[in-house]
Amino acid sequence: MMIRAGFAKKKRLRYISHLELLDTMRRAIRRADIPGEYSRGYNPTLNLSLSQPLPVGMPGGSEYLDLNLKERIDGEKFVQDLNLYLPAGIEILRAKFVGHDNLKSLQALVDRARYIIDPPLKDEERGRDLLQAFAAKDELIITRKRRNKEDRDYDLRSMVHEIKMTPEGRWSFLVSTGSRGHVRPQEILQGLRKIESELPEVPIVNFYREGMYVSHMSQDDELLTPLAEEILEER
């Protein structure tokens, strides 16, 4: 049995790494006396996993965690108890208890992420035209830089599933993420720069991961969250 929770990593803690976030969660779980299950061996650790890592410097509004449990705990109690021991800048938003052990991992489930970008162009109409030009492309080849490996070309356009401007004038991109292929946030700008070569750089702190979703288990192409009943009941 386990509990799955959604949480926010806010701007004030955007510079902590994925491993630091994991350690912070583990410490808070222990201090809150939540009945987490530990691994076996010389150095037992809580069986806790997080969704795909956020780049250092980027906040996230809807991240997820899975925690294996020794005994049942109510989702609302988990939220209240854990938030008492988490630092300002990390907030558990919602949680659901899962009684069975067949639930797919977050890494295996999540296949979409929505990134919001503060537009680097002051002219909103010019920005709107750029997004429309991106959306109209059938193919957009970019080069992925890889550490200790040869660079690799791939079609960015096939992995960007929705492009729009928010009511506040920010740029929104729904992209592939996870084990079946993923788009790095900076690669979105690389693709835009293929169309608008003079597009200014956008630092990672001007990106925001608004949400993470599951698309491949939906019956009608709607995006589900990892906390959707259809996902939690899957066996």
What would the principal axes of the Cα set say about the shape?
elongated
Mean pLDDT: 91
Radius of gyration: 19 Å
CATH class of the largest domain: Alpha Beta
Number of helices: 6
Fraction of residues in β-strands: 25-35%
Largest sheet: 4 strands, antiparallel
**Low confidence ranges:** none
Task: Describe what is shown at a glance.
This protein has 235 residues and is an alpha+beta fold. It has 2 domains: 2-108, 2-Layer Sandwich (Alpha-Beta Plaits), CATH 3.30.70.580; 111-213, Alpha-Beta Plaits, CATH 3.30.70. The chain contains 6 helices and 10 strands, in the order E-H-E-E-H-E-H-E-H-E-E-E-E-H-E-H.
Please write out the topology:
Blueprint: E1 2-9, H1 18-31, E2 48-50, E3 60-68, H2 75-83, E4 90-98, H3 106-109, E5 112-117, H4 124-136, E6 141-144, E7 152-155, E8 160-165, E9 171-176, H5 185-195, E10 207-213, H6 229-232
Antiparallel strand pairs: 1-3, 1-4, 2-3, 5-9, 5-10, 6-7, 8-9
Question: What can you tell me about this protein's structure?
Answer:
The protein is α+β, with helices and mostly antiparallel strands and 235 residues long. The chain folds into 2 domains: 2-108, Pseudouridine synthase I, catalytic domain, N-terminal subdomain (Alpha-Beta Plaits), CATH 3.30.70.580; 111-213, Alpha-Beta Plaits (2-Layer Sandwich). 23% of the residues lie in helices and 26% in strands. The chain contains 6 helices and 10 strands, in the order E-H-E-E-H-E-H-E-H-E-E-E-E-H-E-H. Strands 2-3-1-4 form a 4-stranded antiparallel sheet. It has a 4-stranded antiparallel sheet with strand order 8-9-5-10, with helices on one face. Strand 6 (141-144) and strand 7 form a beta hairpin. The chain is elongated. The mean pLDDT is 91.
